[in-house]
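Cross-posted from the bioinformatics board.
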Amino acid sequence: MSLVPVTPYTYTPLNLLKEGAIVNVYAVVKFFKPPYLSKGTDYCSVVTIVDQTNVKLTCMLFSGNYEALPIIYKVGDIVRFHRLKIQVYKNELQGINSSGFASLTFEGTLGTPVTARTSSKLFSFTAQDEKMVEALRVWASTHISASSTLVQLCDVQPMQYYDLTCQLLGKAEVDGTAFLLKVWDGTRTVFPSWRVSIQDLSFEGDLSHILRLQSLVIDILVYDNHVQVAKSLKIGSFLRIYSLHTKLHSVNTDTNSSLLRLEFHLHGGTSYGRGIRVLPETSSCVDQLKKDLEGADTAVNQPSNSTCESANEDNFELSNSGSGSVSLYEVERCQQVSATILTDHQYLEKTPLCAILKQKAPQQYRIRAKLRSYMPRRLFQSVKLLCPKCHSLQEVPYEDSLDKILQDAATKAPNSNLQDTSLYDSKVWSTEGQGGRQVAVHFVKNDNILPLSSECLILIEGGRLCEISKLSSKFHSVIPVRSGAEDLELLDLSAPFLIQGKVYHYGCKQCSSLKTIQNLSSLRNKGQWIPSTVAKVLGIVPLQYVFVMTFTLDDGTGVLDVYLKDSENFFKIPASEVLNDDDLQKSLETIMDMMCPPEIKIDAYPWLECLIKSYTVTIGTEQRICYQIFDTTVAEDTI
DNA sequence: GATTAGGGTTTG
């Protein structure tokens, strides 16, 4: 029923709101808390709206009458508020219902009928209204992302929050702070639902029907303020439960096996819009739900499907025997996008961390988990030098200690007998006021001709770190040397044996046996100063730059500390360059913040798919199992 | 007639 007003309503864009004004607005719902009983006398609903001006407004709406508050089902719905008062709270504009407040709510999806949801018996609705709704729908389609939390049970993952549309099958009060709801949506969860004991509880609902539906039914515990609402719910009614939390729980049955069970909790409070709303039978979301329920009911009642029916109920037992422990993930139908991907062994089936923790080493596993935390937190501390031969790890020398080593080597003046040989042309500079320090640069020739500086290897005697770093940006390669008895020789291997651009190449002190500089003559005609080749002719075992980090991984079934030891495959950032490159350091930080976002809860972290291998380490008399990531890389589209 | 809540997840 419509009533056309004498003067048409005018609607204020959200960027033109003024304190104290009472206005009419049209906007898209960006966030909302479904109506709940406040601590005062009224129901309250908090609604944040946004319009084409991209200005947001959070509105506090109160009413003693639940039905008088906006009938919002999801983010993206469109609302019309009449007589909204604008006030200031914490230096920001805020909307609040004023006398005579009224609202209409519309589906926000393009192409759906423009039907107003309202409890008002009389309300205006004109061609102008229809245009306003259509215009906001068009704008929202490119500016408001569809709700990612609205899912079916078959799509839920552990450790997330969801808005669930379902039918109530049974209920029971557990105690004053917890209330059990048994619901279904016609689809089956990947992991079977936990079962809350209803022994000694007064249960309302058709238990034989619930038993027949078996794993199609999930148990939800709602807490605190939601208990009152839950009590009043009618069996058979259609519900939307907002910000329902899923948790995977491993239940130990005996020493050798455990069961994985998916828990559903509606925690106390109204944060993030936590709450329950009853959906009328006539709403379009219920239409789809009813179809799903009918289809599932029919399938359950067909005996041919009975084997399928018991599938997820029975196959989730994990045992130490190995083969049985991975089958549970075969039924994982909904592959969520992962922030890391496997580069090999994709055939491996996933193993939950709780199963890995019970097994002996060595083994290889494919896992799916979240990065709860990592060490070291200061990323430059994660770069180390690794000897591929003796596997020893060492710190990358700091600039200060490196300069000290170079200064110590510069105390001895260059020997003029070792200058201008067939291998190189030499030039010597004297410094002023630096205790007579001399710097000799030996330009390595190619067929007795000096190559272009960009292709030229130079040997430097007496140079300081800043000088070497300047020269390394001009010349292809730099080797710090000193005058020996019969030939130029490399410095102690505490110093780099080769510098190319920003990369300082070090050798292993244990594994190298230094050879004479003259050996470079075997390489000079090739004009390619490849670090591994240079190292070889100089008798050096080159150290490899690696990221060494500890990842604390959590998949909801268990927590596992895993090492990452990687030169460039995992992050796709060369560990050898990151220390001297601000951009690469920023990239690394971005990747870590993506995998382990600061200041948000782990539920919202992305999943990581990883290959890990276990191995045994003996420390004294203690044997410990360690785990290392391999053949895994950060997915390109997540960076 | 004022108050309620004032978005930003429990810890069962």
